[in-house]
Amino acid sequence: MKTPHIIIIGAGPGGLTAGMILASKGFQVTIFEKEEIIGGRNKPLILGNYKFDLGPTFLMMSYILEQVFQLAGKNVHDYLKINRLDPMYRLSFKNFYLDVTNNHEEMARRIDKLFPDAKSGFENFMKREELRFKYMKKCLEKPYLSILDMVGKDLLKALPHLAIGRTVNDVLTDYFKDENLKICFCFQSKYLGMSPWECPGAFAMIAFVEHYFGIDHVQGGLSEISCAMAKVITELGGKIHTNTKVKKIAVKDKTSTGIILEDGTKIEGDEIIINADFAYAMSTLFEKGLLKKYSKENLLKKKYSCSTFMLYLGLDKLYNEPHHTIYFAEDYHKNTDEIAHKKVLSEDFSFYIRNASINDPTLAPKGHSALYILVPVPNNTSNIDWNKIKNEYRDKVLKRIKEQTSMKDIETHIKEEHCITPLDWENMGIFNGATFNLAHNLMQMLYFRPHNKFEEIDKCYLVGGGTHPGSGLPTIYESGRITSELIIQKYKSV
Ligand SMILES: Cc1cc2nc3c(=O)[nH]c(=O)nc-3n(C[C@H](O)[C@H](O)[C@H](O)COP(=O)(O)OP(=O)(O)OC[C@H]3O[C@@H](n4cnc5c(N)ncnc54)[C@H](O)[C@@H]3O)c2cc1C
Q1: Is residue 14 in contact with ligand 1, taking CB distance under 6 Å?
Q2: Which ligand 1 atom is the nearest neighbour of the CA of 463?
Q3: For residue range 180-211, what is the model confidence (pLDDT) as tens digits?
Q4: Candidates 3.40.50.300, 3.40.50.1820, 3.50.50.60, 3.40.50.360; CATH matching 5-46+59-81+220-302+436-492
Q5: Partners of 53 in the beta sheet?
C-alpha cells in the first residue's frame, strides 16, 4: 500500500501536534500555512529587538506537551527549556493583591492572611475539584463521534461531577464566601473567553489544574513550542509550506480528495486535517451550499468566545512587575456581562499584563523588556468601530496602566509598539474575532462540539480550539492526539 498522504491546513498548535504524531507513524505529512511564520495564534511577534508571543502566555498541564512529543518518539526537553513559575501569577484588586503559588500550604497561608477562615474552603476546593478533574480528564481524552459516545461509561461516571445546571461562579460558592476570593478561582473561565457567571460549572476545575500542576514558561516564549514541533515534523520527513494559502478543499461525493491552493494548484491527499479557525474554515474552504449543519446561517447561530484588544510594547526599561498580573475591574461581574451580553466596552475594565522579561532575558536587550497587554473585549458581534476608536482605546489602556501599576512613566520608555484589535483578529482569519474560538457552553461541548472526524465530509478531520476537547493549548494538543489516533486506527484496519 502506498504511504497515505495527510494534508494539514494550518500550522497552529493543533495542526503541528497532529503533523508531528502522524509523521512519526510513517504517514506522508504536508502542512500548508497561509502565513510566513508558523504557529498561528501561538507564533512569535518580533518588533525590532523585542520578541513577544502573539497569543498564549500561560502553559498549563505541560505533561500533555511531554506526552505528545513522546508519541512522536521525542523528548520535549531536548527541544525546549520549560520553567515552572512561582508565583504563578499576581491577582490585583483595588485594595489588595494576591500572589498565587502552587505550593498548597503557602497558598492556604496567604489566603488565610487576606481572608480569615477561608483556608478550609481552599482545602475543600483542592479535594473536591481533584475528583472532578479525575472524572473529566477521561472524557476529554477520547473522541465523541456518535451520540452513543455520550452514554459511554467514562461520561456516565463523570456525570455527577459535571455540575450540570450550575456555573463556575455557582460552584465556587460551595467553597468561598468572599466575592473577591471567588474571583481568584473563577476568573480562569476567561481562558475559554467566557464569563464565570455563565461558564459551565465543570470548568471550576481549571483553577484546580493550575494549583495542582503549576504554570510554566518556555524560555524564548511559548511560540518556541510551535517552532519545536515544526522542527520535529521536518526531522521526521514531513513538509511545511509557509506563505501558502489553501483556497478550497476539493470534495467529490461528500468525500474530500485534496486541496486547491490560491494559485489553482491541486494537491491530492488521502485525509485532510483542518486546523484553520473552525467557523472561518467552514465559511471559506468549502464550495458554497455544500455544508448543511455548518452553513453560514447556522454558524452565525453558534455562541462564540470574547475577543481581545492587545498591546505589545518594547520598552527600554525593565519594571519590577511580576511575570503575569491580572488586574480586575472593581465590578468584575459587570465587566464580564458587558463583554458577553451588552457587547460594549466597559468604563472600568479588567486587563492582563505579562512582563516575561523579568524571568526571561532572551526576549529583549539587557535592561529592556517585552511587555504584553491583553484586555478582554466583546467579539465582533458588537457594533464597536475599532478603526475609529483604536488609538483612543490604546490611550485609555495606557492611562489605566499608569494609574494601577508601578509603571507610571511607561509612555516615555516605549521603543516599539504593536496593537491588535478584534477587527485585526478577524482579518487574520478568526471568525467574529472570537480569539478563543467557539464558546464552551454545554451545547457546544463533547458530542455537541464539531467532531474530530468532521461530520459533514468524509476523509476530513479537525484539530484546534474549534473541535473537541476545546480551546487552550493543552486541550488543543489533546485534539491533535485524538485526531491522529483516529487516522492511525483507520489505516491499521485497512
Ligand atoms: C491573545 C490570545 C491569548 C491566549 N492565551 C492562551 C494562554 O495563555 N494559554 C493557552 O493555553 N491558550 C491561550 N490561547 C488560546 C489558544 O491556545 C491559541 O489560540 C492557539 O494558538 C489556537 O490554536 P489552534 O491550533 O486552534 O489554531 P491557530 O493558532 O489559530 O492556527 C491555525 C492556523 O491555520 C492557518 N490557516 C488558516 N486558514 C488557512 C488557509 N486557508 N490556508 C493555510 N493556512 C491557514 C492560520 O494562519 C494559523 O496559522 C490564547 C489565544 C489568544 C488569541
Answers
A1: yes
A2: 25
A3: 999 999 999 988 888 999 999 999 999 999 99
A4: 3.50.50.60
A5: 44
